[in-house]
């Protein structure tokens, strides 16, 4: 390695810490704001140090909700988000892994056509088909339901491609050995392929969970009832009223609670997260 | 590319692809087809009759100054977000690629914003730069800037760009760092032996070797700016003031929400689809994907 | 216990490529049959057809008196050892061996007895709880063997099981496989491209080339009387010297060479001498290279003003080159002119196309 001089290295540390500060500052501000009194904040007199309202704010946020705009406890919104995120992540993985299995391990008419049909959905993000999709979900009476929140997002070309790629690297002899050992398609899938896919599934799960938790446009469209709100939609509604009424400490507490699960996942499962991110993008 | 070892079964493979296929057909293709059909139809004011009007909806759109402005705005936003986020992330990645003490800690502290949802990003930034109560606004005003993004369109646009770029730093940083780490150390050492100073080394050796990553990220960032900024815009400015921060996606959403012209809304969706197809095509054509069919 | 019979077995791929062009082999109960040939000769395909991993497009395969053409691999009562072992990477050694038994619904107690017995025989007992990646190459190979043994199948199938091991381990495992097979007395079919492995392991040797059987027999018989020039050059190392016989001086030396177009002489059948073997062959050679192996020495000489040899197959001698084996370390020097003599009874005569022995 080309050795860096002392000054260069010092500079690198400084730049990185500046970067970290820029990245962290808005979140720090949110944390501080969530511990202060709303009246002080509304006056523009907010202090840059934490205040004494921590417990009070978070208690009210989690179990009561705002007193004005949405009266839904944020804990309930988080539960909705969690259910939606899990349904999307698990659903995507489940239907993608079995379709990849079919496409790789069987020969059947229209195999490649089906592969392409799934693949082309890469080019149909929900943003370009919102209203027609909304209409279908409405016709199926799935508005304000977990099924409506998750089903239209559950197909995944990326995950199917990823599993297909992985299956192609599994040696043929493993299937042949399984056949000689008396394993049919189900047993081979369950006993061999699934355990071998564990790491891939975990990496994918991390990414898809974050993606699911952070869904916004779709839940915004199809949920009308307050008790079906996800946290991302809820936080927006908290600042819909005129500024004077916005309860900033609660909004900021909600923001922090909204980012807590996905950020936790990224930090704790960093290896899987990085792997998943790189795998799904290539 | 095909497997040689396979199972024989007539029905099982269809059963296995059925769930995915059903979802894809019901929630992806059917709506897309609906949008295309709808975009060729015109409904009268009462929704009583529809007629086939060929490309009239599209022509109307392009005649509408607001739509044209939204196209330009979207591209300006995309470019500004991509360039600012990419350059800052590259700087950080180059620094983090050095053999520093605590480099894994740096990485951890820089990648987490990836997980912050766009609407949350919007809320954080709107709070920070709120004209009356934002902490940073105080300093801006102290510097003599008449800061009011709620009224000033350019300031609102700048705010959106900053917030959107902020969120994307971590993603770009991660891929730049991976790109930098995949450059063989021996190449850099060879450049050093050839007498290239660190800055020169960066521009003549590292940067060119990184260009596939840069191009890949450029496309990804543009896609991000097109679609994922919806949540940021919706919580920060709702497309305002006026229409100063209304992007194409946001316009589809608001036009549809107002329940207005179905044909026009559908035509907008179709145009967005075409843009996605083009971006995807560029990505596949010029970025070496490891996907083989 | 079973015999395996292949009756005019054929394999034609959908594209029209004929991988196996009608093969008849009969492996008796408890015999060790080795399929040998160069890569692409169809030996692996044939083995996989016996296993049921490839469909049979013509003829019949019979295991233990039952035609198995349409029988699933799992129901053929065979076990297979793969070249890359194909161990289940996520299962312990124990579970790798137990998996096939469990799929057949065997009681856990019985499985335990069998796996432990196999592990004892293969010296794997201390490693039963390990995963394949924690084992050395030789140990993985033994697990693959163990997986085959515990099944107590009618037939063992081996697909180049030793080719991923280093030379020393390969010889050790070769001996072990043979000992194990003798003790279990299970009919075995073994595929290899290594003629030495083939010679040492086989009760019956099947030499294949281009999807066809060139010769079947016991290894020594094949070595002593190769049926075709292909077999002659494939079996034995260094390979047999093959020289064309036209109306030249060489042909006139040999008695009873009518109808022969090629003469073959093994390097060890030459003697360096000034005498002329009556009715045999005497070649004048210039020594070009010498290889000392220790117990023996190989002398590479070229024939002057002679016609070029028939290098019908890749890997054979360059035209005009003759290899002579000399016992011990003594021998001629490079550049020296020598006479290599072989008696008549050591000559192998073939028709000009190399497909038939003549003159016996």
Automatic annotation (TrEMBL), chain A:
GO CC terms: plasma membrane
Matching CDD domains: TM_PBP2
Subcellular localization(s) per the UniProt record: Cell inner membrane; Cell membrane
Alphabetized UniProt keyword annotations: Cell inner membrane, Cell membrane, Membrane, Transmembrane, Transmembrane helix, Transport
Biological processes per GO annotation: transmembrane transport
InterPro entries named in the record: MetI-like, MetI-like_sf
Any matching Pfam family: BPD_transp_1
Role this protein plays: Part of the ABC transporter complex UgpBAEC involved in sn-glycerol-3-phosphate (G3P) import. Probably responsible for the translocation of the substrate across the membrane.
Protein name: sn-glycerol-3-phosphate transport system permease protein UgpE
Gene: ugpE
